Amino acid sequence: MTETDRTVLAVSGVRYEIAGRLLLDGLDLSVGAGESVAITGPSGSGKSTLLMCLLGLVRPQGGRITVAGTDITRLRERALNRHRRDHIGVVFQFGELLPELTPLENTALAALLSGTPRRRAYADAEELLTTLGVPLNGTPTAELSGGERQRTAVARALINRPSLVLADEPTGALDGSTRDEVTRMLFSVPRQWSCGLVVVTHDPAVAERADRHLHLSQGRLGDAGAVLPGTGAPAGGTAR
Amino acid sequence: MNTLATYTRLFAVGRAAGRGSAGRGLRFTSLLCATFALALTGAVLAAGFAVYDGRELRGSARAPRYVGVENPERAPLLVQVAYDDVGGVQRSVVFLDPRDEGVAPPPGVERWPAPGEVVLSEALRTDLLREGSPDRYGKPAGSISESGLEVPGERLAYVRPAPGLIDPGNMTTAAGFGSDERSVYGDRATVPPLSAFISLVVGMLLFPAVVLVVVAARSGAAGRDRRVALLRALGAGARARAVVNAGEAALPVALGAVAAAAAVGLALPSNPTVPVVDFVLPAADLRRWASLLFAAVLAAALTVLAAVTLLHRTDRAGQGARPGTRGRFTSRRLAWLCPVFLVVATRGPDLLAGGGSLWFLVYAAGVVGTLATLPALVAAAVSALGRLLVRTGNRYGRPGALIAGRRAVAQPGVTARLVASVVVAIGLVTQIQLNTSLLDDAMIAAKATHERIGDSMLTVSSAADREQNGAFLRALPEGAHGLAMEVAHSDGRSLGLYGDCAALRALEAPCGTSTADPADPRVRELAAWFGGDAADVVLHRADPAERLARDAERLLVVGDSGELVVGEVKEAAFRELPAPQVMVVAGEWLFGAAELQKPAAWTLFLGIIGVGLLAFAAAANNLGDFLRFGHTLAPLSVLVSRRGVFYATAVWTILVPLAAAGALGVLVSLWLAAPMTAKGAVLTWAFLASLLVLAQILAVLFWFWGSRSAAVQAVRWRPTAD
C-alpha cells in the first residue's frame, strides 16, 4: 500500500446552508497521506466555510467528514477538540504567531499546549525549524521575514505530527519570490511528513503546484486539472 | 431623508457597531463605570455646595444677634459659649439666659428650657449616654431639631443655667437669634471650609474619574478609530461621525447615568449616612439643590459622550495599536534615581537637627522624587522579571509564564503603567492622609502627657466665686480632691498647689508645706505645662476655694487611686460652677489633635475610592491590551483547544502585577511614611489594609474577567480569509 492509499480525509455529501444560501451542496473530497490538494474558487464560494467544517469549528447540516478514520461530525465537543489537536495542523494567511516569542517558542508552544513533555516539544520544534530553514538565534518572530514567519507557521502546524494539514491562503501575505519559496516548501510537506495537505488559495500559480487542483463552485468541488502525485504531470482524473 | 432621520439612522449604526465590536464587554463595563463614577463625583461636588449652603442658612438663623447694652442685666438675652470634651472632641455648650419674654428660643428648640434645664442635639445626647452622664449639663428638656443644627449629626447643647450660676459679666448681650453671620459655635470650628472639601473631592474623586473616562473612551479604540477614518473617507462630517460614536456609547453611558441618578434619588427622601466617616447628610439641603444634583449627573453623561466622540486619533489610524513602550518608562537613569530619592526621603531629614521648613523640604523632595521615578524602576523590574519568567517558562514548559514573560520583556511599559499608577496613587493618597493628620509639637506632647497620666488629674476653669468653688469641691465624687494652682509669675519657676490634707495625700505629700516629689508623673506634667520644665511644685495646706478667690488661676482635681471618673467630676462642675471647662492636663491640645481626625477620615475614605477608581482604570487599560493580545493567541488556542492558556497568561499579566502593585504601594507608602509618623502623623492601618485588600480584589476580578473574555473571544474566532 502506498502512502496516498491511506486516506486521511474523507468528505462525503457535506451540506451547509446559511441565511438561505446553500454554500456546500453534497460536497465530496478525499485526501490521502502524502497527497496535496489545492482548492480555489471565487470569493464567497464557501472555501472558508469548507475549511471551518474540516476543522470542526462549524458543523455541517448533512454529510460526513472523516479525519484520520473518525467522523468528526459525530463527535462531542471534548472529543472533537482532542481529535483536532491530535490530527489537524493549520497554516494561516498571516501566520498568526505570537510576535514576541522566538520561532522555537512559537513552535514548541503548540506542542506544550497539546500536552507534549517539555524536552520533546523543544527538541521536535528545533528539528522541524532546522529542517525548514528557520534561524534558531532567538530572534523574536516579529523581526523575521515574511517567508521565515510562514515557515515557522508550517513548523507549528506540523509539531504535533498531524494526519492532515490545512492551509488557508498561506501565501496571501507574501511577495513574489517569497511566495514561490514558501509554496515549494509547503508542497514538500505531505511526502516529507506523511500527511495530507489541503490548501485553500486564490492564487492559481500556488494551486497548480498541488497534486490535485479542485475548484469550488455552486457548493461542489470540480476538477480544475489533476496532476499525478509527486510528478506534476496531468492525470486527467476527477476529484475523488 | 430629512436631517433628523439621517442622524437617527447614524445613531442606530453606532449602536449596531458597538454591539459587534471586539472587546465589547470591557468597553461597555468601563463606560458604564466611568459614567457612574463621574456622575457620582459631580453629585458629590453639588452635594458639597448644598450642605455648605445649608450650614450657612441654619448657622446664620441660629447666630445670636448681638447688641450693645450698657447694663447686661437689662439685655433681652445673655449668651455664653463654652466647650466640653465629649468623646475626645470639643463640643459646644451654649449657655442662654433669656431675660425678655418676647425673645424666641433658638431655631430647632420648641420652647425655652426652664432654669437648670438643657436641650441637646440627638448626637450629643447619644455621646453623653455613652459616657454615662446624660444629665451633665442639667436636666434634659427636649431635643434640638434638625432645623436648628447645621447638619443632623452636629453635637450641640443649649443650657439655661440655674439662677445661681448666671454670670452676666462674662456673658454677651443679644437681642435674639438670626444674623448675617454664621454662629461661631457648633461643629463649625472643626469643619474644613468648602474650598478644602472641593479640593479633596477634585483630587481624590474627580481626577481618578476623569482618568477612568479617558481609559473607557479609548478602550477598543483601534476598531473605532478605523470606523471613524472610514466614515471620514466616505465624506461623513464631524457631526455625523460624532453621532455614530455617541450611538455606540449611548447605552452604557445612559445606564451609568441612570444608576448614578438612582443613587442620588435614594439619598433625597431621608438623611443618608456617608459610610466610614459616619457623616449624616441633611436630605433637606439635597432636596433644595436636587436640580443641581441631577444636572451634575446629566453633565457627567454628556462629558463622557463628548470624550467618546472627541478622543480619536484618525490621523494615526492604521499605524498599529501597540502602545509606545520605550521612553520615560524605561529610562535606566530614572530607575537608578528612585532608590536614591527613597534614601533622601527616609534618611535625609535625620541629618537635619530639629524640624522646620528645611526638614519638610528635604522630605517632600525625597517623596516627590521617589514617586516620580518609581515608574521607571517598576518598568526595569517588569523587564527583569519578564526575562526570569521566560527562563522559567522554557525550563519547565509553562506556556503562560513563557508568553507573559516575552510580552513583559517586549513591552514592559504595559505592565509598568498598571503597577506604577496604582503604587503612585497609593503613595500620594497616603502622603495626603499623613499631612492631614500631622500633629504639631504641642499636640504630640499633649498626647504623650495623656498617655503617661491619663485621666488622673483634671483642670477646672470657670469664673466662679468662692462659694461656688466651695460647693463644687464639696460636690466632688468620693476619692476626688481639689487643689488650687497658682503660678509664681515673678520667676516663672515655681507652682503652688493649695489643698486640704486629703488632697495633699492624694499627691503622696505630707499634710503641710512641702516640695512635691518631682518623680511623680502628675507633678512632672504640671511643671512642664504650667511652670516651665525646671519649675518646683510646692504644696501647701490651705483652702483651695479661698486661694482661688485670691491669686490662684485654676483648680486641679486629683484622685486617691489613679484615674478619676471624669463624667462625675464634670457633672459636679456644671451643677455648681458657671460655664466651667473641665479637661485633662493639656486638654486644649488634645482637642486640636482630635479635630484633625475627621478631615483625616474623609481623606482616607475618598482616598480609598480614588485609588480604587485609578486601579480600575489602570486594570481596564491593561485588560484592553490583554484582549488585543488574546486575539493573536486565539487561533492557536482554538487549534489545540486549550483555553487555560489565557488564564495562565493572565495570571502573570494581570493578577500578579495588580496584586503586587497593591502590596508594593503599601510597602513604599509605609517606608516613605516613617519620618512623618515619627513626627506624630497617623498612618491608619485600616487605610493601608483597605488599599491592599482592594488591590487584591481588583486583581482577582480583572484576572478572571480578562481570562474569560479572551477565552470567549477565542471560541468565537474563525479563519476569515475568504
UniProtKB/TrEMBL annotation, chain A:
Gene3D superfamilies named among the record's database cross-references: P-loop containing nucleotide triphosphate hydrolases (3.40.50.300)
Record's keyword terms, sorted: ATP-binding, Lipoprotein, Nucleotide-binding, Transport
GO function terms (MF aspect): ATP binding; ATP hydrolysis activity; transmembrane transporter activity
InterPro entries, sorted: AAA+_ATPase, ABC_transporter-like_ATP-bd, ABC_transpr_LolD-like, MacB-like_ATP-bd, P-loop_NTPase
Keyword Nucleotide-binding: yes
Signal peptide extent: none
Domain ABC transporter: 9-240
Gene Ontology cellular component annotations, sorted alphabetically: plasma membrane
Matching Pfam families: ABC_tran (PF00005)
PANTHER family assigned: IMPORT ATP-BINDING PROTEIN
Protein name, entry field: Putative ABC transport system ATP-binding protein/lipoprotein-releasing system ATP-binding protein
Provenance organism: Streptomyces pini
UniProtKB/TrEMBL annotation, chain B:
Subcellular compartments: Cell membrane
Cited Pfam families: FtsX
Membrane topology classification: Multi-pass membrane protein
Domain ABC3 transporter permease C-terminal residue range list: 201-310
InterPro entries the record matches: ABC3_permease_C
Residue stretches spanning the membrane: 28-52, 194-217, 249-269, 289-312, 333-352, 358-385, 600-620, 645-673, 685-705
Keywords of this entry: Cell membrane, Membrane, Transmembrane, Transmembrane helix
Entry annotated with the keyword RNA-binding: no
Designated name of the protein: ABC3 transporter permease C-terminal domain-containing protein
Organism (species): Streptomyces pini
